[in-house]
UniProtKB/TrEMBL annotation:
InterPro entries: COQ10-like, COQ10_START, START-like_dom_sf. This is Ribosome association toxin RatA. Belongs to the ribosome association toxin RatA family. Residues 11-135 form the Coenzyme Q-binding protein COQ10 START domain.
Length: 170
């Protein structure tokens, strides 16, 4: 089973990070190994996606369901036949000065003995860089839109637009 856990404080508001993690269709723009991500069905506080990971010529396509508990947590699970377990959990806790604490956990196991090393070669390297990639994306979007957390700018945050459900992201 592939497992990765990470916990850290980030100098951005928790709502910004929540919205960036929830915006799955943008993942291929900044996540290594993510070839495609498409929402196939939407619900009020959830959505289902088809995602494709790629490493060279190796491709792995799978389906997930994402539950959104804005602004505190995101849970991503898969009942795809290729996995006996696929569980990703994000938790966001606001801290002082527009900072937040992020907890990330991934647990993944494949059914196929043949696919196990292939999927683990794709998922473990991606998981190890996941929080850093989302943090870098949040900082890049904040810089691009001129939105800077209040602690840095000395005034209220001004996130931009484009969240997964119409809510704002930097």
């Amino acid at each position: 089973m592939a497992t990765h856990r990470e916990s850290r404080a980030i100098a951005l508001p928790s709502e910004w990070l929540f919205d960036i993690v929830a915006d799955v269709e943008r993942y291929p723009e900044f996540l290594p190994l993510m070839r495609a991500a498409r929402i196939v069905r939407r619900y009020p506080e959830a959505y289902e996606t088809e995602q494709t990971l790629a490493l060279g010529l190796l491709l792995h396509r799978f389906h997930t369901r994402t539950e959104l508990a804005r602004p505190n947590s995101i849970t991503i699970v898969s009942d795809d036949r290729s996995f006996c377990r696929f569980d990703v959990r994000w938790a966001f806790s606001p801290l002082a000065d527009d900072h937040c604490h992020v907890d990330f956990a991934l647990d993944c196991a494949t059914r196929s003995l043949f696919l196990r090393p292939v999927v683990e070669m794709l998922i473990l390297p991606m998981a190890a860089s996941m929080v850093t990639a989302f943090e870098a994306r949040a900082h890049a979007l904040a810089a691009k839109t001129g939105a800077v957390p209040a602690a840095t700018a000395g005034h209220a945050s001004q996130p931009g637009s484009g969240g997964v459900d119409g809510r704002s992201i930097p």
